[in-house]
Amino acid sequence: MKKKSQNFRKRRIRMFLLCITLLLLVAIPSQVFALTFFGTPQTLDNAGWVGLYTSLAVVDGNPAISYLDYAKTDLKFIRAKDASGTYWGTPQILDSAGQVGEFTSLAVVGGY
């Protein structure tokens, strides 16, 4: 009876080690892919205290961001010129009348 118990434990340990090995083979490459897929972070607007209350969306196939320019209390918008977000346009002021731009929310209407 003791020998059967030892064999069972050995099989459980082998199965556990096999599961851990498979997990590492699957998880590590996916993490490496996730860290390298998005590329280098870019500064899109650095004029003052900008980038608060962001909203992200894909507009006409390209990433887009709306955000608050806190120093000027303006609502700003910027959109990438390509789907990968490698090249970006110039930040645009969408609204500057009064204190605007807090809690921005992008919505795509008609693809734009």
Q: Order the strands across the largest sheet as they lie in space.
A: 1-2-3-4
Number of helices: 1
User: What's the helix-strand series?
Assistant: HEEEE
User: What is the terminal-to-terminal distance?
Assistant: 73 Å
Strand count, sense and closure of the main sheet? 4 strands, antiparallel
Provide the low-confidence segments as ranges: none
Structural class, judged by helices and strands?
alpha+beta
Q: Work out the number of β strands.
A: 4
Percent of residues in helices comes to: 25-40%
Share of β-strand residues: 25-35%
What descriptive keywords fit this protein?
single chain, 112 residues, alpha+beta, four-stranded antiparallel β-sheet, 4 strands
Brief characterization of the structure:
The protein has 112 residues and is of the alpha+beta class.
